Request: fold
Amino acid sequence: MSTTTWRDSLLPASFRGIPFVIEQTSVPAGQRGQLHEFVQRDEPFYEQLGKQAQVHKLTAYVIGADCFERRDKLLEALEAPGPGELVHPWLGRMSVKVGPCEVSHDRREGGMARFELELYPDLPRKFPSARANTRQQTVKASSGLLDSALGRYSAAMSKVDAARINLIGLRNSVSGAFAAVQQHFAPLASMFNGLSGFVLDIVGAPDSLRGLFGSYLGSFGGGLFSLFSSRGGSSGSSHRASSVSSYGDSSISNYRGPLSDASQHVESIRAIDTVPQVSGADTGAAAQATANLVQDAVLVQVSQLVADLPVAPKVEPVATAPALAQQLVQPIERPEVPVADDVLQLRDELDAAIWQASLKADHAHYQALTEVRHAVGAHLTAVAASGVRLVDVTPAQSLPALVLAYQRFGDATRAGEVVQRNRIRHPGFVPPLPLKLAQE
Reply:
């Protein structure tokens, strides 16, 4: 029975395909650093500064009757610019660059040329790369939209003759806009004393109305997620439960609430895009200007909500899933990531809503809306890229959600995700029908 020895594992040495013989070799290891010795102190301090550079020092030979010819080929390979492949007998194949070398001859060593080689590892250069801060771009675009919206409202109301406004017609026309104010700007709605007070402010104090929206939205400036968290989320809890992959189990979700709230904002933006026709040019102009202001305010708020959606960190897959009994005692803790399909759906819906709003805008406001549309789309694309996609999975038989989650993800605690995403009636009986599950 043959036994493989260490000699059988050695590789024939060569550089750029030119063979040679190696007698000895060395390479630094460990950490480089600086030894600090202080006056009147017996204990020195060694500061580690990183790994040693792996400089390969080899003593190589070319031997034989044709040693001069082989020597010249090796010299040509060593003097050629750029990296080359070194076959190291002990360390294997690697790409190296040639440093200072020395070739020597000795009459007593006839038929041999000696090389002292110094080779450096050829590592790819790592240059700093710039990446767009989509969050800051969205915040900046929403601020520009707010300024443009307030200016557009002031310009429109300056052309309205308040004495010619039909209060009943105005009330009927702005009822939808006031409903959006009640839904998304509850602190402001409480200051108007109902729809009638809102109408009186439009007619008698349009600058005050403009200032209220400007102060309210300007005070948050992209920090609406903290406001959302403090009030415990929005009313869309059923949609919220399916907008995230349950890698984590925190009480305040990074994605569920904001995605649900943003979807409700999109519905409001569509609902108040236009107002019902009323008699009187001044009444119609005041109603449309107010609806435009509220619509723009909702757009500013939803863009600030979108800006606060974080790009999820990369989640490393679990190499070995703990046993089910162990997970029941100590659940797996993973960072929460968004479901990319939900984020992309919100991006497309918001893009369509902003585009529809921009069709009735003048040139300056159209530009502000376009900047918001591009910024929001870019940020939601970045958020979706950090999430997980949904795939169709059909169980072979009816299983409890706990078992299905363990088989699919190796994490039984994600049973709630399976139930909520697919609206399973009973978690103990998941039917053998096509299901939407996270890809990982």
About this structure: The chain has two domains: 11-29+50-121, 134-312+343-384.
